[in-house]
Design a protein that fits this description.
This is 4-hydroxy-tetrahydrodipicolinate synthase. There is one protein chain. The chain is built from twelve helices and eight strands. By secondary structure, it is of the alpha/beta class. The chain has a single domain, classed as Aldolase class I (TIM Barrel), CATH 3.20.20. The protein has an eight-stranded parallel β-barrel, surrounded by six helices. Strand 4, helix 4 and strand 5 form a beta-alpha-beta unit. Helix 3 runs parallel beside helix 4, helix 4 packs parallel to helix 6 and helix 10 runs antiparallel to helix 12.
Length: about 290
């Protein structure tokens, strides 16, 4: 069910930071038309850290209602408080999502045993498919392959979004994980090689601006047509770079506004893209024929 290009969808906002429901509706429609295989609502790229709980759940429900079962919807429900993560995960389940994505607890830097017990408790508390999310550059803690393998044998934990860019981890995890455990790339640059090594797809930032190309790239990689997939990745290489010139989702929201798909609204402490990067992002979009 969870495979291919899974967009880490932005949450559109007006200039004053209010949620833009019309733009969200249009973005979801566009992704369905362009071939995106699944939609991740209110993850890091969706500014989960700046939405309150009521908004968080409202966005998830809006995406679920509009998608109407046409592709899977995955909700970002991670937190550095286990009880809060359980609350969000239960609310997302009640909202009709197909799965939840739970980032490793950030800032408080739990031990590997703490990571295991955190995710084990959420999985035992909410009966919905759950994806682990390892992104040490954001969380300051690295969920090691052996911890991921342990968690793969816990009921309801069905896969991991691995954003380290370390392709060697694919084999390390698959070797001992339960059968059918899903490995999903969280790094646009290395996604093709990740899929070729045994991954099932990627949760992508770049797919926000290039949904059709990323979907094609993931499909080719899954079919073993790695060189063709790499050719698409090469076309998107400057876009991948541009999306992280400042903290995600600053550049991607500016890019979508430049493409005319939504206003350029973002919430503090994030700020609009610095003007010194505008030309680089625009040039990357033009080079990939996205503008």
């Amino acid at each position: 069910m969870l495979r291919g290009s899974m967009v880490a969808l932005v949450t559109p906002m007006q200039a004053d930071g209010s949620l833009d429901w019309e733009a969200l509706h249009k973005l979801v429609d566009w992704h369905l038309q362009e071939g995106t295989d699944a939609i991740v609502a209110v993850g890091t790229t969706g500014e989960s850290a700046t939405l309150d709980v009521k908004e968080h759940i409202a966005v998830i429900r809006a995406v679920v209602d509009q998608v109407n079962g046409r592709v899977p919807v995955i909700a970002g429900t991670g937190a550095n408080s286990t009880s809060e993560a359980i609350e969000l995960t239960q609310a997302a389940k009640d909202g009709g999502v197909d799965a939840c994505l739970l980032v490793a607890p950030y800032y408080n830097k739990p031990t590997q045993e703490g990571l295991f017990l955190h995710h084990q408790k959420i999985a035992a508390s909410v009966a919905i498919p759950q994806l682990l999310y390892n992104v040490p550059g954001r969380t300051a803690v690295d969920m090691l392959p052996e911890t991921i393998v342990r968690l793969s044998h816990v009921d309801n934990i069905v896969g991991v979004k691995e954003a380290t860019g370390d392709i060697a981890r694919v084999g390390q995890i698959l070797e001992s994980a339960k059968e059918g455990f899903l490995l999903i790339s969280g790094d646009d640059d290395t996604a093709v090689d990740f899929i070729a090594a045994g991954g099932v797809g990627e949760i992508s930032v770049t797919a926000n601006v290039a949904p059709k190309l990323v979907a094609q790239m993931c499909e080719l990689a899954a079919q073993g047509k790695v060189e063709e997939a790499r050719a698409i990745n090469a076309r998107l290489a400057d876009v991948h770079t541009a999306m992280f010139l400042e903290s995600n989702p600053i550049p991607v929201k500016w890019a979508l506004a430049k493409m005319g798909l939504m206003p350029n609204g973002i919430r503090l402490p994030l700020t609009p893209l610095d003007a010194k990067y505008h030309s680089q992002v625009e040039q990357a979009l033009r080079a990939a024929n996205l503008l």
